[in-house]
Design a protein that fits this description.
This is TOD1/MUCI70 glycosyltransferase-like domain-containing protein. It contains 19 helices and 14 strands. It has about 500 residues and is α/β, with parallel strands linked by helices. It has two domains: about 65-120, no CATH class; about 150-490, no CATH class. Strand 6 (about 265) and strand 7 (about 270-275) form a beta hairpin. Helix 1 crosses helix 2. Mean pLDDT is about 85; it is low at about 35-45.
């Protein structure tokens, strides 16, 4: 019995040894197949390294996941911002729509990709137009001149003796006294109105001859190559026969158009781009292209003296309403002689001035000085107590019958632009305020204004160093200061402007 137990134990030990030998043999085989694991085993068996290695793996995996999550969240945030930007530009909520900047590079990129459209304007509304432009009764006579019967213009510049300026200015050197007298209405008046001899902005003889036949005018302008002409659409056969479509340009813009292959010449030497007759103004009168653009815009009656009616439209716009329908709606139907749209956001010139400063439309201290002069002279902020629905227009479209009073207003408006800043929206309300009830005009709803055109982007962004100036002292003896415009801002004013405190402005929108 004892021998049997001993034999059994011996057999069990042999089996255990064989089992151990087999496991060691298999482990050896695996070690030969995967020698790197031996290193791992060795590493794991050595204290500190064996504890840190799994931690490093976990940390690396966690970091990669964190980067991926942050990247996805960042992309979602950008997408949400783009969606909000698009929505704010399409919504009818005024507060949100005011946040939209359709001139931004982001919106332009989205427009190029077809995700948005700059032409889709939520502030459009139907215009109560006549049905057929070919059936409109065109007035045969002119609106009588009741207050100002004869209007003539100062053509020679009287340069003050204390001026270093030797050459004449396009707008002249009107004194403060002459400016004040120009607002006093009389039957016969003679005022500054641009086009001083030797001041620049000369037309070619072939164009002077052509415009003499133009009684009905659609005018536009492009300066410094910022735009290309846009062909009007929906133009009736009657309007094509009746209207001259005149595009006023400088030499830089004409060269740019020729480079793009859009200019054609007729046998008489006239230049054309589609329906537009190109009118070249040689020798630009001002340093600033924006100020040069005010010449055809405001002084349309001076450039085209035979015109009885004119419709001005900025160069970046494509007219989409027949001109005869426009004259019937905005002039003849209500017996108006001057029509312009209400500004989308602002009613007070002081709010408009604040927006101009924020968007760097001109030197901020000069805008403040401009507004101080107006406030000193009695121009109050707009309120519901005023007779006008707004003091600030959208100046990109102006519809006029060229009566003596309408022409006088245009001259005085331009004189303010010549003397002060080129921001004509600031000067419009002041000029109307000075003429009072004697000058009647129709300011139509902004939503109708937006339905008259399709807006196209500029070919490039406009920027001038003077727009960034924050300190007036940097301009007084600087090359940044304009040499041919804005002289009223640097001429001693006959009043105590230091005592003027401009009214507070409540910013209702970011638009400028």
């Amino acid at each position: 019995m004892g021998d049997d137990n001993l034999k059994r134990e011996t057999d069990m030990e042999d089996d255990l040894q064989r089992s151990r030998s087999l496991r060691l043999s298999r482990r050896g085989d695996r070690s030969n197949q995967n020698p790197a694991k031996d290193v791992d085993v060795t590493l794991f068996s050595s204290g500190r390294v064996s504890q840190d290695y799994p931690t490093k793996i976990v940390w690396k995996k966690g970091f990669v996941r964190l980067v991926l999550v942050v990247g996805i969240l960042w992309m979602l945030l950008i997408l949400l911002a783009l969606l909000f930007h698009i929505w704010s530009c399409q919504t009818s909520v005024s507060f949100l729509s005011a946040m939209c900047n359709k001139d931004s590079k982001v919106y332009t990129m989205l427009d190029t990709m077809g995700l948005v459209s700059k032409d889709s304007n939520p502030h459009r509304c139907p215009i109560p137009l006549s049905n057929d432009p070919d059936k409109i009764d065109i007035p045969t006579g002119r609106t009588p001149n009741e207050i100002v019967k004869n209007l003539s213009y100062i053509m020679k510049d009287e340069i003050p003796s204390n001026r270093d300026q030797s050459s004449p200015l396009f707008g002249g050197h009107p004194s403060w006294k002459q400016r004040e007298e120009s607002f006093k209405l009389k039957s016969n008046m003679k005022v500054h109105c641009g086009f001083i001899r030797g001041g620049g902005a000369e037309m070619e003889l072939v164009d002077i001859k052509y415009v003499k036949k133009c009684k009905f005018v659609v005018a536009s302008g492009i300066f410094d190559g910022y735009d290309l002409p846009h062909e009007p659409s929906n133009i009736s056969f009657s309007s094509k026969k009746l209207f001259c479509f005149l595009m006023v340009v400088d030499e830089v813009s004409l060269k740019f158009m020729r480079k793009n292959g859009t200019v054609k010449e007729d046998s008489a030497g006239g230049k054309w781009v589609g329906i537009w007759r190109i009118i070249l103004l040689k020798n630009p009168p001002y340093d600033e292209p924006r100020r040069n653009g005010k010449v055809p815009k405001i002084l349309t009656h001076r450039l085209f003296p035979e015109a009885q009616y004119s419709i001005w439209i900025d160069g970046k716009m494509e007219l989409i309403v027949d001109p005869l329908l426009i004259l019937e709606r905005y002039l003849w139907r209500g017996k108006h002689t001057f029509a312009i749209a209400q500004h989308k956001h602002h009613r007070s010139i002081y709010e408009e001035a604040d927006a101009n400063k924020r968007r760097k439309r001109y030197a901020r201290p000069l805008i403040d000085l401009h507004m101080k002069i107006y406030y000193y002279e009695g121009m109050k902020p707009w309120s519901s107590n005023k007779k006008t629905i707004s003091d600030v227009p959208e100046g990109a479209i102006i519809i006029r019958e060229h009566t003596a009073m309408s022409n006088l207003f245009s001259c005085l408006w331009f004189n303010e632009v010549h003397l002060f800043t080129p921001r004509d929206q600031l000067s419009f309300g002041y000029t109307a305020f000075r003429l009072g009830d004697s000058f009647k005009y129709f300011m139509f709803p902004n939503c109708e204004y937006n339905s008259l055109f399709v807006l196209h982007p500029h070919t490039r962004e406009h920027s001038s160093p003077i727009e960034w100036v924050k300190d007036l002292n940097k301009l007084k003896n600087s090359k940044l200061r304009e040499s041919r415009g804005g002289l009223g801002l640097f001429t001693p004013y006959p009043g105590d402007l230091d005592s003027v405190v401009l009214p507070n402005v409540t910013r209702t929108s970011k638009a400028g």
